[in-house]
Structures are given as C-alpha cells and as structure tokens.
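We emphasize that the prediction below concerns an isolated chain of 550 residues; any contacts that depend on oligomerization or on bound cofactors are therefore not represented. The input was used exactly as deposited, without trimming of termini.
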Amino acid sequence: MKHTKNLSTKYIKDMSTKNTEDTKYSIKGRTRKSASPMTHTFVTRIFVSFWYNIFRGFRVLRGQYNLMFFVVTALLLASCTSTPQDATKVDKLPAIYPDYAGVTIPAGIAPMDFDFTGGPYDCIDVVVKGSKGGELHANGDDVDFDVDDWHALTQQNKGGDLTFTVSVENDGHWTQYKDFKMTVSPYALDEWGLSYRRIAPGYEVYGHMGIYQRDLSNFDESAIFDNQAAPGACVNCHTQNRTNPDNVTFHVRGDHGATFIRHDGQDEWLKAKNDSLHGSMVYPYWHPSGKYCAYSTNQTHQSFHAVRSERIEVFDQSSDVFVYEPKTHQLLLDTLIMTKSHYETYPVFSPDGRTLYFCSSTAEPIPSHYKDIRYNICKIAFNPANRTFGNKVDTIFNARVLGKSATHPRPSYDGKYIMFTMSDYGCFPIWHQEADNWLLDLKTGKAHPLTAANSNNTDSWHNWNSNSHWFVFTSRRGNGLYTRLYLASIDDKGNVSKPFLLPQRHPAEYYDKLLDSYNTPDFLSKKVEFDMRDAGDAIVSDKRVATKVR
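Result of the prediction step, given as a token string:
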C-alpha cells in the first residue's frame, strides 16, 4: 500500500542536520511505517526481525545486545530516504494540501508543512531555496521541516522569496513538478500567537468546547479555558485589548452565566444581566486606554431552514450597545445607542478611543421579516475624559442601499481601515455562504471586497495584528461545514495577499480528524496565564460582582 492523503499510521522523526558553513539546512522527513508487503519498509522489517531474533537466541552480552538494538533502530529509520535521480519534469504545480503556492508569510511563522495529494507515492523530496540565500531540504514520506531551520531560512529571506522544488517517487520513478514560491513579507508579525474558540458545529445543543491559544512560531496549542472545568458552561466572546491579554474579557452562558473581566491585574466575574439591559454582556471591545470596554446586550434566537443550501439562522429580537467602566463597575448608557426602533450591536472603539463604531438595523418583525434585517455601520463620539457620548449618530457605510448587511466591524490599529463582513441580511453571517470580508477606507469613505482573500464560501470573523499589516479570519472554504483559520497580509497601499491556512504538522491528517470549528480568532501579544481550575470553581459558585448604571 502506498501513501495516500488520509492514511492513518505511526510516525518516526529522523534526526536533522545543519551545515552552518554555507547556510544550507538539511532535514529528513517523518517516516511512516507501512504494513504493505509490497514496500521496501516491509522488506526492511523482515530483515531486521530475522537478524534480531538470531542475535537474541545467542543471548550475547548486554553491551552487544544494546549495540544490536541501535543497529535495528537505524535500519528502521532508513526507509524512504532516496533522492531524485533521472526525474521526469512536468509543467504543472504539485497537488499539495494546503495550497501554499503564492502565499505571503511572516518571518518566524511555524513551518509551512504540506502533504502531497496528487496520488499514491513512495517518497517525496522538497528543496526550498531563498532568494537572499539559504537552502532547506526535506526528504521522506512526508514534508516536516525543522522549526529552527525553517525560522533561520525565513529570517534570512525577509522581504524575499522562497522557491519550492517538489519531486515525488512512485514505483522507483521520480517526477519533478513545476516550482512554486512563497513570499516572506517585510512586515513583521510580532504577536506571540492566536486565541480562538474551538467548538463542534452543533445546533440545538453543545458539548465540549473551549477557548484556546496557539503559538504561531510552532505548533503548540493549549487551553485557556476548557468547559470541562465547568460542565455545561458555554464560553464565548473573548477579547483582549489590542492583542494584549493583560486586559481580557469573555462571556459564560448557561445556568451559571457570568462575564469574566481581567483589569489592572484583578479578575472579576460580573453578574451576567442587569435590570437596565435586555440581555447579557456580549460582543466586547476594549477602549485603547484599558479603562473602558464596550459591550452589546442581545436577545438572541435561532431557527432552522428547510432547504439544503441553508442550515441555521441566528438573529436578535432586540439589542443595544453600551460602555462598561471596570474601575467603578458602572454601565455608561445613552438613548442614542439604545433605541427601540433599531437593533444596535457589535460596538468597537476607534484607535484613538474618541469614536464608538457599531452596527445598526431597523427593528423588523421576527421571524417573518428576518431577511429585511440589514445593518449599516454607524458611529458616535465618545469622550473618555468625562465618560460621555456625542449628540448624534452618523452612518459611515450604508449597506442597506446595496441590499446587504454589514457586520463585525474591526478598525485597523493604524486608523486607516475598518474591516467588516458583508452578507445578504442579518447579524450572524458565519452560516451565510455569500458572506465576504470587506475593507472600508476611513479617509476616502470607499469600501471594496477583499477579493484576494475571499472565497466562494463563508468568510467572516476577523481581527488585526498590532501593526495592522496582518489579519486573521475564519472561512468555510474547505468543505463548507467547518470554519478554519486563515492569515493574510496587507501592504502600505492596501494590497492584500493570498491567505494561508493556519500551519499544522501533517496538515491533511490534522484537519481531516479535527471535528471542531474555529471562531472569534484574535492575535495575542503574549501567552495567556489563566488558572482553569479556579475559573471553573468561580463559575459554579455563582459569586458575582454586580454592575450599576451611572
């Protein structure tokens, strides 16, 4: 049996070597053990087993026995290490997953490992050459670059290109495919990693879920909070302040509802509801000073479609926005952003903290007129010194005149843009196949779709990194069912690169087995330190800090 895309096997990683004299880096790929009697791996095993049992029968001295074990191990690791000879060159790109051809990556990102999906094969050989020097070589049953060697190569080629030469062996014959390139961006991605929620794409009920963090320089992932620490709790709407988790908040839904907030080194669990609010404190966004956090309060419901192309509809029957001051536990309310005639939601502060953006739709009968709910992006002035709002609301992007709905606004931290999601209707576009991400230029007032980053399926929730040259978003472009995380860059002129799927080791197998969707991703400037057990105890204790209206 030859190697195929979803073959489930055990892996052995060979030792990597580095030639420091000429800046060339060499690594052997991971070796898969095959059970097929037709492969050289099986023959090697028979050979090793034969001599292993003969030597064991002699019961030689312990030292000699250990030496034999070393030889056996070395033979096992020797499979699939041949190099391309007399390769047939073909004028087409290799079929790989993920599709990394032509993407732009930051220096220091985790290795962009990929799987060959162009059919069965015995061995794969990949040579990566930098336009500014350096070379990386992977050879084996799959492509698994060493983390340190990959980082060295990308740092050396910052602002340049990496050229990949892929050759595949099948039945003793090598085929060399057309080269493809990755661009190493001149813009740094200084953030430590990402935070996101992982949850199975359920409907009526939910089970295991959690908020996780991922180191972007490697493949390490850990749970910030897993709801096994508080069974039955649904954790959502996590947000840190401009990627810094020193200020962070998230919501807990369920029998022990609460809003968690970390501020000035203190953790508090707020009472989820207030008599002055329609619902809980959700969809948060921090003021750049860290002194305030904007929230939405929503009465959210869901219904199911009876057609195959549409699955679920999530909608609000009322919603308002407000600002919370952690120091005083006060809710800052204003009638201009809490109206009965409109649904206001998704509040975000401008980078200077003097404007509050939000989405607003006319209130329509639900569920009969759910397709008439279309949101515009609006703004109101905010004075952080005296905690007051302006005296008028302005519309800065009118999606309704286009027959569309604009949601999830996220201002770039350099003040140039607002990225938002455009869909046909509603406030919850993550199940809308037509949903795309758009970019609003705050200087010109013009908006356009992010064509280079969008797909034919759902593209939605997004966030910026601190220098506003990178963004992360969710997409269902893979199979239409599960949302995955993609990253892309934007240059000083507003040009957007082809996005790349969040790197994983053995990505085809990883994503094929992953039964969770990602949502609400955001960048992290550093790893989050959080005591999950204490948090679980706090949730089930129902001890809450009450909020009050100013």
